[in-house]
Amino acid sequence: AILDVEKDYTKSIRDADKDMNEARKESFKQLVKEDTQGDIDYQKSKQEAETAFQDQSYETEKDYIKSMIQTQKDYAKERIRQERDLIDQLRDLEMQNDVLGYIQAQRDAEKQMKDQDDDHNEQLNDTKKQHDEERAENLKAHELEMADLEEQNADRKLQLTVGYLEEQQQRQEEHDKQLAQMKIDAQERLDEQVKSYGKAEAEAWNQFVIDEEREKARTALSKRYADEDRAMQLASNQRSFQDQLVQFQQQEDVAKANL
Questions:
Q1: Burial of residue 182 (number of CB atoms within 10 Å: 0-12, 13-18, 19+)
Q2: What CA–CA distance (Å, rounded) separates 223 from 242?
Q3: pLDDT (tens place) for every residue of the chain, 259 residues total
Q4: How far apart (Å, rounded) are the C-alpha atoms in residues 8 and 48?
Q5: How many CB atoms lie within 10 A of CB 5?
Q6: pTM for this structure?
Q7: Measured between alpha carbons, how far is 10 from 161 in angstroms, rounded to an integer?
Q8: What contacts 90, CB < 8 A, 6 or more positions away?
Q9: What does DSSP assign to residue 98?
Q10: What torsion do the CA atoms of 9, 12, 18, 20 make, to the nearest 10 degrees?
Q11: Phi, psi (rounded to 5 degrees) for 44
């Protein structure tokens, strides 16, 4: 029975360890599955953010180029109109033989066109500057979005790992408690078996002592009966000897009397 207790205890530990290892394997599989799906979602979010950024950059660049072309077209159209007006004005002055007017008109036209060129170039530079700033802001926003996605993914991995480790720690603590309780239960069963074995052994020893005392009593009684039988036999033999002696003496007396 004691060996059965030890055998059951060993088997229970082996089964508990097996269940523990199986639970760990399943938990790790779930961790890998969730982490893999998280990485897939992360890469998908990155790709969507990158695509949205590229689309936005394309639209911004397209609008900028379109605006610049339209500005250039409008400016060129206005310049052509001014040059035509200037030609008509100069032709009129030439027909009027107004040399000074002619020269002044040319100077005024050149100054006006130069001022317009400066204003136009300034406008182009301002538009380009505004466009570059918008591109920089979009790029910064995109970089921040990508950084947020990366941080979120890192936090996800951290939380997933911490959750897994906490789960393993809790499972290990429960496993240790289970083993400790199994040990206590096995020890209690073992103590009961030992106690029962000791009681049975004591009873067997008491019975042995009783049987031995009985045997001693039977032996003593048998010896007494044997001694009494020997005594009675000896007494009987002595009486028989005396009787024979008396009979022999009587025969001897009779024989002497006959002489």
A1: middle
A2: 28
A3: 556 767 787 888 888 888 889 988 999 999 899 999 999 999 999 999 999 999 999 999 999 999 999 999 999 999 999 999 989 999 998 899 889 999 999 999 999 999 999 999 999 999 999 999 999 999 999 999 999 999 999 999 999 999 989 999 998 899 899 888 888 888 887 777 767 665 555 454 455 444 565 566 567 656 766 666 676 666 666 666 566 665 666 666 666 666 5
A4: 59
A5: 19
A6: 0.59
A7: 33
A8: 102, 105, 106
A9: -
A10: -100
A11: -65, -45
Rg for the chain, CA atoms, rounded: 64
In whole angstroms, what separates CA 249 from the centre of its chain? 121
Question: What is the total residue count of the chain?
Answer: 259
Residue with tokens 């060993």: 10
SS3 159: helix
Sequence-distant (≥ 6) Cβ neighbours of residue 219 within 8 angstroms: none
Which residues have a Cβ under 8 Å from the Cβ of 143 and sit 6 or more positions away? none
- Helix or strand or coil: residue 1? coil
Q: How is residue 143 written in tokens?
A: 């970089």
Which of the 8 DSSP states describes residue 259? -
* Closest listed residue to residue 158, CA positions, set 62, 66, 38, 45: 38
Q: Measure CA of the first residue to CA of the last residue in the chain; give whole Å.
A: 96
Tokens 């979010």 — which residue? 45
> 52-87 in b/e burial notation, b at 16+ Cβ within 10 A?
ebeeeeeeeeeebeeeeeeeeeebeeeeeeeeeebe
Tokens of 237: 């033999």
Q: Match 């239960």 to its residue by tokens.
A: 185
